[in-house]
## 1
Amino acid sequence: MEKNKETMAKAPPLAPDTQQLLEWVYGMLTLPTAPTTQNLPPALLQQEPFAALQANLKDLREISASLGRGELQNLVTSKGIVLAGLKGLQSNLRHLTWQTKMVAKGDFSQQVDFLGEFSDAFNEMTHKLQRYQQQMQHLASYDALTQIPNRLSLEQFGADAFKKAQSSEAPLSALMMDIDHFKLVNDTYGHAIGDTVLVTLAELLREQLRISDFVARYGGEEFVAILPNTPLAAALQTAQRICAAVRKLKVKTDNGTTFGITISIGVGQIIPQDKAYTDIIERSDQALYLAKMSGRNRVCQIADGNNL
Amino acid sequence: MRKYIFDWSLVGDIGAGRPNLGAEVGVDIYRLMQFTLRDVIESRYGAEEADSIFYQAGKMAGAEFYKHAIHPVSTVEEFVRKTQQVLKNKRIGVLRIEEADLEEGRVVLTIDEDLDCSGLPELDYETCIYDEGFVAALFEGFTQQPWAAEEIDCWCTGARTCRFLVTQG
């Protein structure tokens, strides 16, 4: 270092023009305010290479200052390897901004591979957000106890199934199911056993229905099934089969004994006057009421708004 | 008389035609063809006309490529994702988006490891004219509106990626 200083001190003085040019370039790279060119020789200012150097340094100052302020919109036009490094960083940050916006829209496939450790952190964040979103979606759509869809999911499925059935003029049926004397089960065996009954029944319903069917916990001890492409007669058969399967269920109590349960089912199907899937549910509910009133442990139907 | 009006069938049945060598060929061979062709066209018609020819050829390729490799896509996000996948799988380049406002008709995107130019000698002008046409045609295919693409940074001008400003109209 000392030797360099000595060598520089002994160096012959530069021509004034060269000295001024060096000072101007150094000023462009280091000073907060860009130096003027008024001290530079007029002949130099007219040279094309000087114009290119000036534009390049100006863009270098601009992009450097923009990046320092976190502004990413300033797209400079000069070329070259030094600017390319800063433009590359700017470009990566702009990509990242766009990718973050995509993640915010729910596109968790976005991955970053150009910013070292930050990439790992971003990608991990995306994975975690995706997992959380899936968990939240599950919590919002499924009944926590029985792990079958909840009423919110029923609304979405029911609305879609109704729209499809209407547009294709296909049959659509619904079953409204209620465990008979469920309060008595809770009072006699306790709520934990009551929960076991609900879980067991949910499993049975999943087994008894087709993949294309949909079953949800409607609330309390009530369950609803939507059966697409199913006319009333076929829905009644399904309901009878479920009723019979439930009769065979044996639920274990804490002391090892078992007891049985029964359910009542109301069946309804789509009719031309229906405005929404809830109209079918309403008829199924009326049919369920009939089943309860006529002794429980049975299937009743309402078609075209009339008790058949 | 025209001998080769482009049709996708001209790509041929590669599986049947190259049972041993397969569908891939080196980047050097692709560039050998492109730049020798460019040389002849440029020497015969001049650089400006050669640029125009390459841009139009790129547009034709992009339009056909969109129809056969990307369509159907419905949303902007799906279009971008599918295009990224296909360009990567075909080893054309790594597409990334800096900004995309299709309603405003402005997109800035980059293609890393671009098939046409990555690794070329450095020049003071952008070289990916064919890509410009290709990129513009992808957006035209998706939006069914006219688009233009301009390369604003290129490997050949010192950047380590190709950056395109794509605008509607």
## 2
Amino acid sequence: MQRAEIETIAYLARLDLTEAEIPVYQASLARILELAGELNRADVAGVAPMAHPLPGLAQRLRADEVTERDAHERYQLNAPRVEAGLYLVPKVIE
Amino acid sequence: MGSDWETVIGLEIHAQLATRSKIFSGSPTAYGAPPNTQANLVDLGYPGVLPVLNAEAVRMAIKFGLAIGARIATHSVFARKNYFYPDLPKGYQISQYELPIVAHGALEILLDDGARKRVGITRAHLEEDAGKSLHEGLARWTGIDLNRAGTPLLEIVSEPDLRSAREAIAYMKKVHTLVRYLEICDGNMQEGSFRCDANVSVRRRGATQLGTRAEIKNVNSFRFVERAIQYEVARQIELIESGGKVVQETRLYDPDRGETRSMRTKEEANDYRYFPDPDLLPLAVPRSLIEEVGRSLPELPDQKAERLASQYGLTEYDASVLTASRELASYYEEVVRETRGDPKLAANWVMGELAAALNRDGLDIGRSRLPPAGLARLLARIADATISGKIAKEVFEAMWASGRDADAIIAERGLTQITDTSAIERVIEEVLAKNPGQLAEYRSGKDKLFGFFVGQVMKATQGKANPGQVNELLRRKLSS
């Protein structure tokens, strides 16, 4: 694992790594990749990609019906900040 | 600028599916509810909840796929698209990636020169919408409303087959018409039910490689899409011609300034790390369902336009205008049925006076002040020569304003056309007597004055004289 890769992954995961943590992640992620790399050595010719570990099962569907009622006041009890029914977060600038 | 360059455009259209409940939960999808009153635990991404797919959303996607002649996947997969944004509570959007439900379709568009062009549709996949961020009036904060989170979307991705802003708009309108015919989306652009991202690039004419593209995000009207593309094309050409390079980026259209602006820097290139969502099993669509949905398809816009053209002898263009919506087409057909008259006359009135009046009052055809039968009765009075086409416009306006019947207005205002030959002849004689100078000029060869006399006769009769008869009688009189 290159240092730059660690930085990119940390950015995508919004992790603010300290200088001391970078080599730790570098080493442990490398070990994880090595383990996953064993899969690359398996012969998968003719094996259909699997999207789910439960074979032969398909997604169950629900009827298009409204079954939920408004409970936003309850859901918002543990929100750090609420105003006029809105969840407030630090200003997002586009 | 111009002919040295070729524009290449692909559109990603997001159509909100008109289901009652959300794609993965039983929350309502109605527009305009107070903030967060339609977001439950699944929509909010609470731990331990599981998404359950809405059968109607699947049906609607199949409907669209069949209408564009696409392949419907009997096996498709939902994937997580990972990114962080406050209006996306789970930190990922459930979408489809490698195996979308709809692939390899196409639509035909009518170009300005009357030619037809096939536009490929790479794929259409199901996904959930995000919430909304509100930035105004909250000083240091951004407000998050998650009512929209989890609303079903069909993302319709075109091939880069479009070569101008005009073509892009024609295609976008075609999709807009189609989803409304299919009743899978209300098409309301102001409410964001139908949105569009445009991928725009330019290349030297004759080049085979695509140029670097910019993605213009979320433009919410046909006019803005056209302007945004025009601006972007000019910007890219100017940039390259002055020695610069187009960078792949996301740009935002600013309608007030009429320009696009860079939104995300290239270093932050999207890296969504898609993977199959373990919360959802693969979606199996049985053949029997595809066949059942196929049988439920309505007459599609192209089929309707073709039928109108051949059944009523309309031009291809008129037929395409009249089939822009199902409501407009059925209004037109009802007018024709009621008058049992001239379908071309009916087409002209529906596309002319009626469309103008609707436009003026900001109404759609469903809320026309004039029902089809009312317009039919007016057209019948033109057909039986009770009134002229010109007077009919006056009657139309009065009907539109008052909601009264054509015959009542014609009778009340004494607008019945003068078809009595002797009455018209009398007026002609008066006009000629009043204008001896012009008469002498006409007789000495100034043929153009014929129109002057017609005008004077029409004026003297307040437009009520039958124009055909006036022409004929005047000609006879002047040549005698």
